[in-house]
């Protein structure tokens, strides 16, 4: 009796559509409840470090002197605490998917440096 039940289950499973999507070949449907992933406008950052102190998993680290902002996406649980506390409003949640990764790599962000030529005064002669 058990063999017949097993064969019936296997046959029914083979005739059904797959239960999962072939992501990322076919994009997944986005839910309104999904927060997506954290993004930063590093040029607006005030380097206060409130986001790293509020992060429950210590996924964010801010270096005031070096002006760097770093996130470990494998540690981030997308809780939105950092976005809520940021006084500069440079952190946002984007409701898009990132490409899948296989190893935990920290992302480092630095502000864009605009180099200007030093001004020289003309000597009056």
TrEMBL record:
Coiled coil: none annotated. Keywords: 4Fe-4S, Iron, Iron-sulfur, Metal-binding. Residues 36-65, 67-96 form the 4Fe-4S ferredoxin-type domain. InterPro entries: 4Fe4S_Fe-S-bd (IPR017896), 4Fe4S_Fe_S_CS (IPR017900), Fe-S_Ferredoxin (IPR050572). One of its GO terms (molecular function) is oxidoreductase activity. Pfam families: Fer4_21. It comes from the Archaea. This is 4Fe-4S ferredoxin iron-sulfur binding domain protein. It comes from Methanosphaerula palustris (strain ATCC BAA-1556 / DSM 19958 / E1-9c).
């Amino acid at each position: 009796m058990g063999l017949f039940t097993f064969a019936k289950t296997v046959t029914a499973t083979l005739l059904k559509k797959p239960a999962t999507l072939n992501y990322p070949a076919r994009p997944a449907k986005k839910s309104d409840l999904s927060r997506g992933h954290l993004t930063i406008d590093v040029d607006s950052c005030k380097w206060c470090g409130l986001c790293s102190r509020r992060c429950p998993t210590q996924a964010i680290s801010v270096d005031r002197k070096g002006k760097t902002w770093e996130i470990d996406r494998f540690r981030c649980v997308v809780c939105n605490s950092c976005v809520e506390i940021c006084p500069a409003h440079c952190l946002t949640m984007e409701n898009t998917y990132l490409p899948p990764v296989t190893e935990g790599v920290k992302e480092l962000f630095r502000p864009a440096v605009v180099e200007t030529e030093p001004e020289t005064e003309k000597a009056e002669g």
